[in-house]
Design goal:
By secondary structure, this protein is an alpha+beta fold. The chain has helices spanning about 5-10, 25-35, 55-60, 65-80, 95-130, 145-175, 280-295, 305-315, 325, 360-370, 370-375, 385-400, and strands at about 180-190, 190-195, 205, 205-210, 215-220, 225-230, 240, 245-250, 255-260, 275-280, 330, 335, 350, 355. It is built from twelve helices and 14 strands. The strands form four sheets. The chain has a five-stranded mixed beta sheet with strand order 3-2-1-5-8. It has a five-stranded mixed beta sheet with strand order 4-10-9-6-7. A two-stranded antiparallel sheet has the order 11-12. The termini are far apart. Bound molecules: dinuclear copper ion.
Length: about 400
């Protein structure tokens, strides 16, 4: 029988098992449950090193240690942020990003105010009402009507202060497409992004080109699992769901390349599902569209190596699922829909879900073993030999 059970049994011999904690006399509890003395194992009878209550020792912790701990914490908090951060929502580059950032800052200040008030009260109460020898317990405030109304109303008012601007922001940023908006369909795939431009018929992958200053409306769906389109500096994050079309509307306000990525766990290579939004001035954008609409070079104009690559691209392999043309489209050559459209692959800066640089070396690495290059890749290892790889690299690089 433990010591406190002995106390309970002594106080109420018939109800040993039914005593609640609060029913145990205060005196008995403090004596029986708390070790009154902690003696260091090596201490002899003449040298009892720790003879005070452990709680008392904590209270006696010198203030300078607490201050030092706070200072180290503050140092970490203020120096951990350097940069550059290409995917930071704190440097918006468009109207949607700006709206979200403004809302974030408002809520951050409100939350900061709540933090300061609550922590100040907590620290004040902890110091003012700490246990001291001979001090009676502090008076209770149970049933204090004014206090109870105040601490019910205050959170409600804070929540209204958050809800009103949040709803306003949603209404402002989620309306119908403005006239003259550029409409692009976005299709999420494991693990790459497909873009289809409604007006021009351009189909591309991973690198979304848009003109600066013109509203863009993305109509987004998925070919397989749920993904989430997110280019943080342009704002917003939208789930991309099979059988459903979600829209994202924004107007970029500066020229540049804005990195983004899938923001919803979508399988093995979720972390390798990157994207770029290339914002250009309208002349550069129109030139890009015109170039993307061009048919690829006819076979007679290809270099001998590239012509060999075209043959390798068309070759029917065993099993047939290892055949390039089954999955990929190249205008005038093949019409596969499983993988990215390769008609202008050479014009993109990266491949494989924005993961591998689009260089001869990067392409060769990808063709040699896609599954090692990108875990879980849906592109099989086709079993190409080195001469086929070299020829395919020459051909793919000709697709500008
Ligand atoms: Cu697609 Cu995560």
């Amino acid at each position: 029988m433990t010591e406190d059970r002995q106390v309970r049994a002594a106080k109420n011999p018939d109800e040993t098992h039914h005593l609640s904690f609060s029913q145990i006399p205060h005196d008995a509890l403090t004596r029986a449950d708390r070790p009154a003395t902690i003696v260091a194992p090596s201490a002899g009878p003449s040298a009892p090193r720790f003879q005070t209550d452990p709680l008392t020792r904590v209270r006696e912790l010198p203030h300078r240690y607490i201050l030092a701990a706070l200072a180290v914490g503050a140092l970490f908090a203020t120096t951990a942020c350097g940069g550059p951060f290409p995917q930071s929502t704190l440097h918006p580059a468009g109207d949607l990003g700006f709206e979200i950032d403004r809302l974030f800052r408002l809520i951050l200040w409100l939350a900061g105010g709540v933090f300061v008030v609550v922590e100040s009260l907590l620290i004040y109460v902890a110091i003012r009402y700490r246990a001291r020898p001979g001090q009676p317990p502090p008076a209770r405030v149970h049933g204090h009507t004014l206090l109870e109304i105040s601490w019910t109303l205050a959170p409600a008012v804070i929540l209204i202060m958050v809800a009103v601007p949040t709803i306003q922001t949603i209404l402002r940023t989620d309306g119908p497409a403005p006239a003259g908006a550029l409409e692009v369909s976005v299709i999420g795939h494991q693990w790459w992004w497909e873009y289809r431009y409604a007006e021009s018929g351009v189909v591309t992958a991973n690198e979304l080109h848009v003109p600066v200053g013109r509203p863009v409306v993305l109509s987004m769906t998925s070919a397989d699992v749920i993904h989430s389109f997110w280019a943080p500096r342009l704002g917003g994050k939208r789930d991309v769901i099979q059988g459903r079309t979600n829209r994202l509307r924004f107007t970029p306000d500066s020229v540049g390349v804005f990195l983004g990525q899938c923001a919803e766990f979508c399988g093995e290579s979720h972390a390798n599902m990157g994207l770029q939004v290339v914002v250009e001035d309208s002349a550069a954008f129109e030139a890009w569209i015109a170039a993307q609409q061009q048919a690829p070079l006819p076979p007679d104009s290809l270099s001998p190596a590239a012509r060999e690559g075209l043959e390798a691209y068309r070759r029917i392999r065993d099993p047939a699922s290892n055949t390039c043309i089954i999955c990929h489209a190249i205008q005038g050559v093949s019409g596969g829909l499983m993988g990215p459209n390769l008609t202008h692959l050479g014009s993109r800066s990266r491949i494989a879900g924005d993961m591998i640089p689009n260089t001869a070396e990067g392409l060769a690495r990808w063709l040699r073993d896609p599954i090692t290059a990108k875990p879980g890749s849906k592109m099989p290892n086709v079993g190409l030999d080195e001469s086929e790889i070299a020829a395919l690299v020459a051909y793919l690089q000709s697709l500008r």
